[in-house]
Amino acid sequence: MKYARMGAALAAIAMVATACSSSSSPSSAASAAASAAASGGGGGAVVNVKIGIELPMSGGEAPNGVPTANGVALALDQIKVPGFNVTINQQDDAVNGVHNPQQGAKNIQTLANDPTVLFVVGPFNSNVAQAEIPVGNAAGLMQCSPANTYPGLTKTWGGVDPKTLRPTNPDKIAYVRVATTDDLQGAAGADIAYNIAKAKTAYVADDTQTYGKGLADVFATDFAKLGGTVVKRDSIPGSTTDFTSYVTTLKSLNPGYVYYGGVTTSGIGLFRLQMAQQGLQTIPFGGGDGISDGSAATKSSFLQIAGTAGDQNTYSTVAATHDIPNASAFADAYKAKFSTAPGAYSAAGYACAQVFLQALQAVGSGVTDLKTLREDVRAYVADPSHSYDTQLGKFSFDANGDTTQHIISYYGFDATTQDWKFLQQRDFTAKPLF
Amino acid sequence: MTGRRGTGPATGGTAPGVRGRLSRALSPATAFSGRHQSLTTVVTFAVIGIILPVIVLFPPFSGFGTQNDWVGGFADAGIFVLLAIGLNVVVGWAGLLDLGYAAFFAIGSYTYAYGASPFTGVHIPFWAMLPVGAFVAAAFGILLGAPTLRLRGDYLAIVTLGFGEIVPAVFLNASTLTNGTNGIVGLDQPSLGRLFGVGDFGFTNPWPYFATILAIIAVAFMLLSRLENSRLGRAWVAIREDELAAASMGINTVTTKLLAFAIGASTAGLAGVYSAAKLSIVSPDQFNFTVSFTVLAMVVLGGMGNIWGVAAGAFLVFELQSQGLKQLNTFIGSLGLPSFQLGPITVDLATINFLNYQYLLYGLALVLMMLLRPEGLFPSRRRRRELHESPDEAERGNVELSEAEAVEP
Amino acid sequence: MTPATAPLGRARLSAGRWNLALGTIAALVAAYVIMDLGAGGEGQAQFINALTIGAIYALIALGYTMVYGIIELINFAHGDVFMVGSFVSWWLLTTIGFSGAITDPLLLGVILAVGFVFSMGVMGVVGMIIERFAYRPLRNAPRLAPLITAIGVSFILQNVIQVGVSNSIVTTPQIIPNTTLNIGPVSIRAINLFIIVLAVVLMAALQLFIGRTRLGRAMRSTAIDRDAAQLMGVDINTTIALTFFIGSGLAGAAGVVQGLYFGVTVFTLGFYAGLFAFTAAVLGGIGNTTGAALGGFVIGFIQVIAAVYGYGVWSEVVVFTALVLVLVFRPTGILGQQLGERA
Amino acid sequence: MSGEQRPGLVLDARGVTKRFGGLVAVRAVDFTIPSGSIVSLIGPNGAGKTTFFNVIAGVYEPSNGEILFNGETVIARPRRTWAEPIYWFVIPTILLILAVAALLAGIGIIGHLLFLATLLAIIPALIVALTRPRWYVRMIGRAGIFRSSRPNEMVSLGIGRTFQNIRLFGNMSVLENVMVGMHSRMHANLLDAALRLGRHRREEEAAVRDARKWIKYVGMAGYENEAARNLPYGYQRRLEIARALASEPKLMLLDEPTAGMNPVETREMTELIARVRKDLGITILLIEHDMGVVMGVSDRVTVLDHGEKIAEGSPDEVRANPRVIEAYLGRGAASA
Question: How do the domains of chain C map onto residue ranges?
Answer without folding.
Answer: 10-329
